[in-house]
């Protein structure tokens, strides 16, 4: 599949956060495929953006062998499931790639660049990440050791055969300690983008704040990154889980992408909450989300990126029935 305007990309951010549902199965390859891929294969979604569990704790095999920390009973179940698949021929991401491809979908590998359930698990490991403990669970993105660690995780995802990678600059801000000079923020992220660009000729996507002021505070310069050919896809989004009004504009990203010598695609984010993120509250109705997706394409984007729709219902289904119908009706 090519990313072109006559077939928009509909990308599903799939973080595997409900892997516990696999505990109700025999945990075979087909069970994982049925739960994690099949519901999307029966829709208009054509890109799975698989997010490893957190920056430091993974839901697939990497060289660092960090698993989801069993801080709760649910996480303990997820750890057991991940260990089971890691000990098999194909880990969970391998299965998603294999069955995603078999169903005509692209699969990207996404890393939450600033999110770790328990940073102390890496803080004392020589040569790995020196997490900064200001606030809670935050890191200093200027650290060479941190950037090196992230690059190694992306190398491992690329080795698995993903079709591209996603740099999530919007998960769990801030990225820098208080009072970090702005020029140092910009330099750190630019240095990281250059490091990542050398890793692969496959598409590199970046999820960023659509509001420049909020993004710059995290060292984001997406228009510069586009102009310099450092990214191939930009995903403008509401900042750090802020509610989505479904009516913000992304004109500057379209303009920048259209003038990029390398070429860049624009996939604005949609996520289903118009209020504070509380799971018990109903989000935007499916018809409003479909309407927004259509408007995004009409306004010049190349696709839409669906964030945090990955929640199982009480019947252990990846998507509640109303969301399944919604994804089936995209672009029609």
* Tally of individual domains: 1
Give average pLDDT, whole number: 86
- Outline: globular
Biggest sheet details: 9 strands, parallel
Rounded Rg: 19 Å
CATH homologous group name: Glycosidases
Count of DSSP H/I helices:
12
Span between N and C termini? 19 Å
Describe the structure.
The chain has 332 residues and is α/β, with parallel strands linked by helices. The protein has one domain: TIM Barrel, CATH 3.20.20.80. The chain is 34% helix and 13% strand. It has twelve helices and nine strands. It has helices spanning 29-36, 38-41, 73-86, 92-102, 120-123, 144-159, 182-197, 212-216, 222-227, 251-258, 286-298, 321-328, and strands at 9-14, 47-51, 106-112, 164-168, 204-209, 233-237, 265-266, 269-270, 303-306. It has a nine-stranded parallel beta sheet with strand order 7-6-5-4-3-2-1-9-8. The longest helix has 16 residues, at 144-159. It starts with 8 loop residues before the first strand and ends with a helix.
């Amino acid at each position: 599949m090519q990313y072109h305007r006559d077939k928009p990309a509909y990308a599903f951010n799939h973080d595997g956060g409900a892997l516990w549902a696999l505990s109700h199965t025999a945990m075979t390859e087909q069970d994982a495929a049925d739960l994690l891929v099949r519901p999307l294969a029966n829709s208009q979604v054509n890109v799975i953006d698989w997010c490893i569990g957190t920056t430091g704790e993974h839901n697939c095999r990497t060289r660092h062998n960090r698993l989801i920390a069993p801080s709760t009973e649910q996480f303990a179940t997820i750890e057991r499931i991940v260990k089971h698949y890691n000990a098999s021929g194909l880990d969970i991401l391998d299965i998603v790639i294999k069955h995603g491809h078999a169903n005509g979908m692209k699969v990207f590998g996404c890393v939450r660049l600033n999110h770790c359930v328990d940073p102390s698990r890496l803080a004392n490991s020589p040569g790995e990440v020196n997490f900064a403990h200001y606030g809670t669970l935050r890191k200093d993105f200027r650290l060479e050791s941190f950037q090196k660690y992230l690059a190694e995780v992306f190398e491992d995802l690329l080795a698995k055969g993903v079709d591209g990678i996603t740099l999530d600059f919007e998960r769990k801000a801030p990225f820098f300690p208080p009072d970090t000079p702005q020029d140092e923020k910009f330099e750190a992220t630019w240095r990281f983008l250059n490091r990542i660009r050398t890793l692969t000729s496959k598409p590199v996507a970046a999820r960023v704040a659509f509001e420049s002021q909020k993004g710059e505070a995290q060292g984001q310069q997406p228009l510069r990154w586009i102009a310099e050919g450092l990214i191939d896809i930009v995903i403008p989004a509401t900042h750090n889980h802020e509610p989505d009004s479904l009516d913000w504009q992304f004109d500057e990203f379209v303009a920048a992408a259209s003038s990029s010598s390398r070429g860049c695609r624009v996939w604005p984010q949609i996520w289903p909450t118009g209020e504070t993120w509380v799971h018990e509250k109903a989000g935007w109705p499916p018809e409003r989300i479909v309407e927004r997706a259509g408007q995004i394409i009409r306004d010049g984007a190349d696709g839409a990126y669906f964030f945090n729709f990955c929640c199982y219902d009480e019947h252990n289904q990846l998507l509640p029935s109303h969301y399944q119908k919604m994804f089936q009706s995209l672009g029609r």
